[in-house]
Amino acid sequence: MRIGELAERTATSPRLLRYYEEQGLIRVDRSANGYRDYDEALVDQVAHIRGLLDAGLSTRIIRQILPCLNEPSEIHFADATPDIIATLEGHRDRLAERIALLTRNHDAIAEYVGSLKQCALGVERAVPA
Amino acid sequence: MRIGELAERTATSPRLLRYYEEQGLIRVDRSANGYRDYDEALVDQVAHIRGLLDAGLSTRIIRQILPCLNEPSEIHFADATPDIIATLEGHRDRLAERIALLTRNHDAIAEYVGSLKQCALGVERAVPA
DNA sequence: TTTGACCCTCACATCCGTGTGAAGGTTCGA
DNA sequence: TCGAACCTTCACACGGATGTGAGGGTCAAA
């Protein structure tokens, strides 16, 4: 499909799709006329990338961890060098930290919202101003 | 305490502490000479803010959810308007989505790294080139 | 054949969190 | 009293993700 359709289907902009390509996040074919020609699978991939960006990861990091996340999950044996493994372990651990932090904040907000709703109910019943 | 000390204790920079103040994230007193005078509690608060920023939240959002996160957790009853509650629920839910997404990715990376290490071991044993 | 909707590249602009430096005031110890 | 180390404000700069516009090509339908 062409860039306009993919942009619409992923709720992004053509500009961003070109940017992700430039950053090495997606691979894109070209038609004879020079237009970008996107594979159907890119719809999911772009959604995935957007999620990761939205979660605060940089394109640099996403580029590094993306190979692990391909669905067929074919292991690239050549990648099993110690420093690549170390890099991935680092990303894995920092992801865990980030998750823990987000979880703490999520829980705090949830608790606060709970109290607030409780309180709103109480006010509604007790102080019918 | 003064800005230098707080910067050091929170591993930030004076510049950022001024910025957080400017963004309405922290409240800061002034000494007679015009110097900022930070309360002890700011150490934790700034750490908290840094965590949220690091987790990908913007100062605008942080400003909104910060009141819920104060340690004494004194509920601001006046805040219990339906739209504020809705906003908070929105943040809470989007946080939950992010956590789910990051968790999936964390697990995928962990699994991939596991396979990679396994594979590295195998190669080491099987192909002592 | 022309028009309109799409695509291309290039490049400058914006926002946000952050760094940095200038120009100057305060405090404190030598 | 001088200098070092701290503080102030102001303002410009930068990198990353994104918007926008100029100048131009492609293609299909009228």
UniProtKB/TrEMBL annotation, chains A, B:
CDD domains: HTH_MerR-like_sg3. This is MerR family transcriptional regulator. The lineage of its organism: Bacteria, Bacillati, Actinomycetota, Actinomycetes, Catenulisporales. It comes from the Bacteria. The keyword DNA-binding applies. Residues 1-68 form the HTH merR-type domain. SMART domains: HTH_MERR. Pfam families: MerR_1 (PF13411). Keywords: DNA-binding. It comes from Catenulispora pinistramenti. The keyword DNA-binding applies. InterPro entries: DNA-bd_dom_put_sf (IPR009061), MerR-type_HTH_dom (IPR000551), MerR_fam (IPR047057).
